[in-house]
Write a structure and sequence with these properties.
Elements lengths: L21 E5 H5 L5 E5 L4 E9 L2 E5 L2 E5 L3 E5 L5 E5 L4 E8 H11 L4 H4 L3 E4 L2 H6 L2 H13 L5 H19 L8 H21 L6 H7 L4 H12 L3 H19 L4 H7 L5 H12 L3 H14 L1
Antiparallel strand pairs: 1-8, 2-7, 3-6, 3-8, 4-5, 4-7, 6-9
C-alpha cells in the first residue's frame, strides 16, 4: 500500500508542529517549479487555507477530485490528504498555520470558527462579497506581517488570521452546510475526544475505550472523525502520542529509554519501531536532526 507523504510544506520533510507559526506564499511560488502539479500528501499538524481569485484547476481532497472555480476558498485541516492540478494561469495564495495554535486562539476569541477550521472543503464566494468585506485588506496585512522582521510580527500575524477566518465565515454563510446545531455538537464531540486522548494516551487504550467514554459506538466515532476532521480515531491517538514523544525528544534531558517508559512503552525496541512507523525515522535520528536544526536557528 502506497504511503501518503507527510510534509511540513509540500516537498519539505515533516517537522515538529511547533517549529512554524504561519506561512504565506503565492501559489505560483511552489507550483510553477512542479509543473503546476502537487502530488497527494498531508500535513501532520498544519492547516492550509487557499484563496483562488483567478485561473483554475482541480483539488484532490481525500478521494474526491473537485474542480476549482474562482473566486473560491479551500480549507485543508491537518491530516487531510490533498493534491492539486493547477492551470498555469492560476492566481491565488496559500496560508499555512499550525492547527492547534489557531484553534487555541479561536477557542478564546471566536469559538464559532472551530468547526470551520476543522472541515475540509471548497467554498465558492461571490466577487461582490470579497470586494465589500475586509477580506482582501486583511490578506495584504497578513502578507506584510509574514515578510516583516519587526517585533511581534508573528503575534500580529496570528491575530490577523483570526480576523481573516471571521471574514471567510461571513462570506461562506450562504453556502450549503450542516445546521449550526449539528456542526457545533460534532465539534464538541471532537473536542471531548481530544481531551480524553490527552488524558489517557499513555495508557494505550483502544478506540473502543474512547467511544464508550463518549457514549457512542466505534463506528459513530469513526464517522464523526472522518466527516469533521478527515481523520480516523486511531490516527488522532497516534498523532497525539507521537507529538508528545517528539516534544520529549527535543526538549527534555531524558534518554530515549526514559521517554519510552514515560509514554507507556515497556519495550524500548517496540517504541523505536512504533515511532519509525509513524514518522519514518527512529527516535534517535529524529532527536539528532531536531537538535541540529535548533542549533542552527
Amino acid at each position: 500500500m502506497r504511503k501518503i507523504p507527510n510534509y511540513n510544506l509540500y516537498g519539505e520533510s515533516a517537522r515538529p508542529p511547533w517549529y512554524d507559526a504561519f506561512n504565506f506564499e503565492w501559489i505560483v511560488e511552489r507550483s510553477a517549479p512542479n509543473d503546476w502539479h502537487i502530488d497527494a500528501h498531508r500535513h501532520d499538524a498544519l492547516l492550509q487555507f487557499l484563496y483562488i481569485r483567478g485561473g483554475g484547476g482541480e483539488v484532490l481532497i481525500e478521494n474526491v477530485m473537485i474542480e476549482i472555480v474562482p473566486p473560491c476558498v479551500i480549507m485543508l485541516p491537518a491530516q487531510t490528504v490533498h493534491g492539486f492540478n493547477f492551470a498555469p494561469d492560476v492566481d491565488g495564495l496559500v496560508v499555512t498555520v499550525a492547527q492547534r495554535s489557531i484553534e487555541a486562539l479561536a477557542s478564546i476569541a471566536a469559538p464559532g470558527l472551530i468547526p470551520i477550521l476543522q472541515r475540509a472543503g471548497v467554498s465558492r464566494v461571490s466577487a461582490q462579497s470579497v470586494k465589500e468585506s475586509a477580506f482582501v485588506p486583511i490578506l495584504e496585512l497578513l502578507e506584510k506581517e509574514f515578510r516583516a522582521t519587526d517585533r511581534g510580527h508573528m503575534a500580529a500575524g496570528m491575530s490577523l488570521l483570526i480576523a481573516l477566518f471571521v471574514q471567510v465565515a461571513r462570506m461562506c454563510e450562504s453556502a450549503s452546510a450542516p445546521s449550526v446545531a449539528s456542526t457545533e455538537r460534532r465539534a464538541q464531540q471532537i473536542k471531548r475526544f481530544r481531551q480524553l486522548v490527552a488524558a489517557h494516551f499513555r495508557e494505550h487504550r483502544p478506540v473502543e475505550f474512547y467511544a464508550d467514554k463518549l457514549g457512542m459506538t466505534v463506528t459513530q466515532l469513526g464517522r464523526i472523525c472522518r466527516e469533521e476532521i478527515s481523520s480516523s480515531p486511531l490516527a488522532m491517538i497516534n498523532e497525539h502520542l507521537v507529538r508528545e514523544a517528539q516534544r520529549d525528544l527535543v526538549y527534555s534531558t531524558m534518554s530515549v529509554k526514559q521517554i519510552a517508559h514515560g509514554l507507556g512503552f515497556s519495550d524500548i525496541a517496540y517504541f523505536s519501531r512504533y515511532f519509525r512507523k509513524q514518522t519514518g525515522v527512529t527516535p534517535t535520528q529524529f532527536q539528532a536532526e531536531a537538535h541540529k536544526a535548533l542549533a542552527i536557528q
